[in-house]
Specification:
Bound molecules: zinc ion
Largest sheet: 3 strands, antiparallel
Shape: elongated
Structural class: alpha+beta
Order of helices and strands: EEHHHHEEE
Oligomer: single chain
Helix content: 40-55%
Number of strands: 5
Radius of gyration: 20 Å
Strand order of the largest sheet: 3-4-5
Number of domains: 2
Strand content: 15-25%
């Protein structure tokens, strides 16, 4: 049994401190490679109730959902998956207004709609030609 430690982190936006769960901090370190202090702040930011922190949490949720979609569609092609994840992130963070990717008969368009949601459009085009 490990003795209980109380860890504190500060919101990255408003600086409000709060207690953070050690397991969650360890998860953040594993997933992001953040250092101890940063990892604690990342966890504290997740639970902070200030507007900026809430907006960030919503954004991360959407990013996660879009990432799930991408992993489902491109599970057999890790290189394409990397490009698509990058396109989702870059448009959702407004580095680019829109990114279009063509893959075989599929055209994917990534952008953010008026409501601020990540939008991914898939268009499938198939043309058949017969000559006799
Ligand atoms: Zn905050």
């Amino acid at each position: 049994m490990s003795e209980e430690k109380i860890l504190y982190g500060a919101c990255r936006f408003c600086g409000q401190t709060q207690t953070v769960n050690e397991d969650e901090v360890l998860d953040v370190i594993r997933q992001t490679g953040a250092e101890g202090e940063d990892a604690k702040n990342i966890v504290a930011t997740r639970y902070c109730t200030c507007e900026e922190a809430k907006a960030q949490a919503t954004h991360e949720m959407k990013l996660e959902a879009a990432g799930e979609w991408a992993r489902g569609v491109f599970e057999k092609d890790p290189e394409k998956l990397q490009c698509v994840l990058c396109a989702i992130k870059a448009t959702s963070e407004h580095h680019f207004g829109r990114i279009a990717i063509k893959s075989g008969k599929y055209n994917y368009t990534f952008d953010v709609d008026a409501a601020g949601d990540i939008r991914i459009k898939t268009k499938y085009t198939d043309t058949q030609e017969e000559t006799f």
